[in-house]
Amino acid sequence: HYFICHHKGAAAAQARLMKVLLQVKAQKNVFIDSDNLIQLAGLFDIVKCQVGCLTVYLTRDTLTRPWCAGEVTSAFAVGVKVVTVRTPSFVDPSEETMQDLKSYIDLSGCNLAEYNISLAIVETAFRRLLSDATPTLTLSPMPLVIGSRRLAGLVDDLISLTGASTLMKAESTRAIPSTSSTLPKRPGNVIVSSDQEDDEALAAEGILLAKIRQQVVRVVPEGICSLSDYSMDDLDSVGDAVVQARAVVVILSGGTLVSRPQLVVITELMQAQAVAQEAKLNVGHAATSTKHGNIPEAPTVISLNVPGFVFPGAEYYEKVLPYVWPGQASQAAQLVLAFFKTITIRFGTHESDEILETQAREVTSRVPGKFNERDVAGRMSGALHRAAREDLADEDGFNCHDWRSV
User: Fold this and answer.
1) CA 188 to CA 112: how far, in whole Å?
2) Which of 106, 162, 362, 403 sits a CA distance of 20 to 30 A from 302?
3) Residue 58: in which H helix or E strand, if any?
4) For residues 351 and 339, what is the distance between their CA atoms, to the nearest angstrom?
């Protein structure tokens, strides 16, 4: 069995997607505390008695969590195999910090001494964890593999690493081949958009797809296209793919509203909605009758918000959006405002699998079963002018990270 030790605030979705993939690929039971939430003593006993490999997913604050410290210490105490996954946000604690773990570990809600775990024992465990003696996988900040395939590659490497007779360090940047380097042109498919630079958002997308793919393809022969698996350099292709879709799922995460590709998805989607609405108004109330079958239907809007997403306020529209989208920020603002008038689905990646199943079913229920390819021509005529996208593509010196904390 695997146990994924992680900080839920930074890696809940990544840990859960690892669980999903490990269960499928390795055919092993996988513990994460969101699904196996019990008292700390019970978690430590699971590590000692039921786990063959403790995978420590190192983000910035992982080792400051008392339960993570206890899980690592418990594993080493009984000889459980331990593997670390280093993410770009993790920084090794300094020597000074190691000698003052009382200040480093957040013990405000937990006293490890109650479980016979002293800070001296934790220090020893941490030093061993971060040494060359512990097998390590590294998520590169500049991966060769993009999208959800990056995390899938990590799991493949973890299985290989834990199953090998001789463990060694590896970097999870294997080049998993893609069927195409450009976005596929499949009018009527379901498009899924997430922030390509956010591992939590990508993992949330992976979890969602694992839960909905089978049901969706039963009614959508054109299949599902995950935009994050393709290069987002060509914003024209992104916009064109959106307006040709049957439905577009937008995963809203912390960086969505400063992500140019995701803003193109949102604005093109809402522009298509506006074109369809205007066409219906032009022919009056009779537009919904069968004799007006040439009225284009817009792609269905399906939005999910994951932990970390903050709905935009006035400051976003006044200061941030004009920086992210120079030239036509006013038009973009109206479309973004329209987007947030639609009902969004909460997708709580830190919650139990049962809750996520319920939320995923809400997504599938919104995917339309019918699609008329003749609608596409009408949608394309209403797409945002390409010059507006060129404003995004040509602006030099843009750094979306400048605004990700706004």
Assistant:
1) 55
2) 403
3) strand 53-58
4) 26
Residues (pLDDT < 70) of the chain are 35-41, 141-148, 164-181, 283-296, 375, 377-406
What is the distance between the alpha carbons of residues 227 and 225, in angstroms, rounded to a whole number?
A: 6
The DSSP bridge pattern shows strands 136-138 and 2-5 to be unpaired
Q: How far is CA 231 from the centre of its chain?
A: 17
Residues 6+ apart with CB under 8 A from 177: none
Q: pLDDT value at position 21?
A: 92
What burial class does residue 395 get, using C-beta atoms within 10 Å of its C-beta: 0-12 exposed, 13-18 middle, 19+ buried? Answer: middle
Cβ-based burial of 404 (10 A; exposed 0-12, middle 13-18, buried ≥19):
middle
- Looking at the DSSP assignment, which residues form a beta bridge with residue 226? 192
- Ramachandran angles phi, psi of 94, nearest 5°: -70, 170
Length of the chain measured in residues: 406
Can you tell me whether residue 85 is helix, strand or coil? strand
In a 3-state reduction of DSSP, which class is residue 139? coil
CA distance 251 to 347: 9
